[in-house]
């Protein structure tokens, strides 16, 4: 583990990028950063800020996914030089949701039904959906282009954001590797030990902690 260890546990909110960016700013630019992600996702803007802060860090960035990092968690993981998973831990698609509905599905309603048969609320949601579809795709391309090349990054961005799967689809480590992501399954036991300290996160507690000194286990 590096000197900077960051666990993010529960839904991502606006407190998380503030804490992560502060921790990165206080860290030597060449020092490796380890981020433990255990989240079903959360606010797109929060995930984007964290991902861009990690991508801008000069030192090596490793993201550990002991169980799951869905949606915005996956977006955050894409900023890493390496994503370390368990054989059965999962990532998820990045298709945007509008009021709990898939943006792609809302647009299909408008495409397939006469406009006179669509209520105003659905039309408004479809308009929002059209605007939101391009955002995560562009962000994914920006995060991956330097490592995968522009063409491969564009293809992967389209795959992850186009509604190919349901939003809760589980992308395994093997499938993530097949998609071209830098995934390994050599998850250190220390990460699982760290996660065991957070069995039931309390909403009032910070979800990100800055650990300024290394933690090692003394041999028995």
Would you give an account of this structure?
The chain is α/β, with parallel strands linked by helices and 220 residues long. The chain has helices at residues 15-25, 44-55, 72-77, 103-112, 120-148, 150-161, 173-178, 189-195, and strands at residues 4-9, 33-38, 61-65, 68-69, 82-85, 90-91, 97-98, 101-102, 171-172, 183-184. It folds into two domains: 1-92 and 170-220, 2-enoyl-CoA Hydratase, Chain A, domain 1 (Alpha-Beta Complex), CATH 3.90.226.10; 95-164, no CATH class. The protein contains eight helices and ten strands. The strands form three sheets. It has a five-stranded parallel β-sheet, with helices on both faces. A three-stranded mixed β-sheet has the order 4-6-9. Mean pLDDT is 87; it is low at 202-217.
Under CATH, the topology of the largest domain can be stated as 2-enoyl-CoA Hydratase, Chain A, domain 1
Number of domains: 2
How helical, in percent, are the residues? 40-55%
Under the CATH scheme, the architecture of the largest domain is Alpha-Beta Complex
Q: Mean of the pLDDT scores?
A: 87
Radius of gyration, rounded? 18 Å
Q: How many DSSP E strands? A: 10
Q: Please give the alpha-carbon distance between the first and last residues.
A: 20 Å
The secondary-structure element order is EHEHEEHEEEEHHHEHEH
Task: Supply the helix-strand structural class.
Answer: alpha/beta
Per DSSP, what share of the residues sits in E-state strands of 2 or more residues? 15-25%
Strand order of the largest sheet: 1-2-3-5-10
How many helices? 8
- In the CATH scheme, the class of the largest domain would be Alpha Beta
């Amino acid at each position: 583990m590096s000197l900077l260890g960051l666990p993010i546990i529960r839904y991502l909110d606006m407190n998380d990028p503030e804490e992560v960016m502060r921790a990165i700013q206080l860290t030597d630019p060449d020092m490796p950063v380890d981020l433990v992600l255990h989240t079903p996702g959360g606010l797109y803007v929060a995930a984007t800020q964290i991902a861009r802060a990690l991508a801008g860090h000069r030192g090596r960035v490793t993201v550990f996914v002991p169980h799951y990092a869905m949606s915005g968690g996956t977006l955050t993981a894409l900023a890493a030089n390496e994503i370390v998973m368990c054989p059965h831990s999962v990532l998820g698609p990045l298709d945007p949701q509008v009021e709990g509905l898939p943006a792609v599905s809302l647009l299909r309603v408008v495409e397939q039904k006469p406009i006179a048969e669509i209520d105003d609320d659905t039309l408004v949601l479809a308009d929002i959906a059209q605007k939101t579809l391009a955002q995560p795709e562009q962000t994914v391309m920006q995060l991956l282009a330097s490592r995968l090349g522009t063409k491969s990054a564009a293809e992967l961005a389209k795959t992850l954001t186009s509604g190919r799967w349901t939003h809760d689809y589980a992308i395994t480590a093997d499938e993530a590797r097949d998609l071209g992501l830098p995934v390994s399954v050599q998850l250190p036991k220390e990460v699982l030990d760290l996660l065991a300290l957070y069995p039931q996160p309390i909403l009032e507690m910070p979800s990100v902690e800055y650990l300024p000194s290394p933690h090692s286990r003394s041999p028995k």
